[in-house]
């Protein structure tokens, strides 16, 4: 379902968005680190 008028929901202020972006980046980097450790340890 596509609408010609896309209106993103704005439920967070800029500071909250920055905080959430930092949290998500930390999670993504942690997962990448874990993948790297598995590759190194198990050769997968």
What do you see in this structure?
With 44 residues, the protein is mainly alpha-helical. It has one helix spanning 14-42. The chain is elongated. Residues 1-44 are annotated as: Disordered. Residues 1-21 have a biased composition (Basic and acidic residues).
Write the layout of secondary structure elements.
Elements: H1 14-42
Shape, per Cα inertia axes: elongated
What is the H/E order?
H
SS class: mainly alpha
Query: How many β-strand runs?
Result: 0
Q: Roughly what fraction of the amino acids lie in strands?
A: under 5%
Query: Residue ranges: pLDDT <50 for 5 or more in a row?
Result: none
State the distance separating the first and last CA atoms: 40 Å
Helix content: 55-70%
**How many strands, what sense, and barrel or not for the largest sheet?**
none
Structural Rg: 18 Å
The count of helical stretches stands at 1
**Could you tell me the mean pLDDT?**
89
């Amino acid at each position: 379902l596509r609408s010609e008028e896309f209106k993103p929901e704005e439920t967070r202020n800029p500071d909250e968005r920055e905080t959430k972006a930092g949290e998500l980046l930390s999670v993504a980097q942690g997962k990448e680190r874990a993948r790297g450790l598995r590759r190194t340890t198990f050769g997968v």
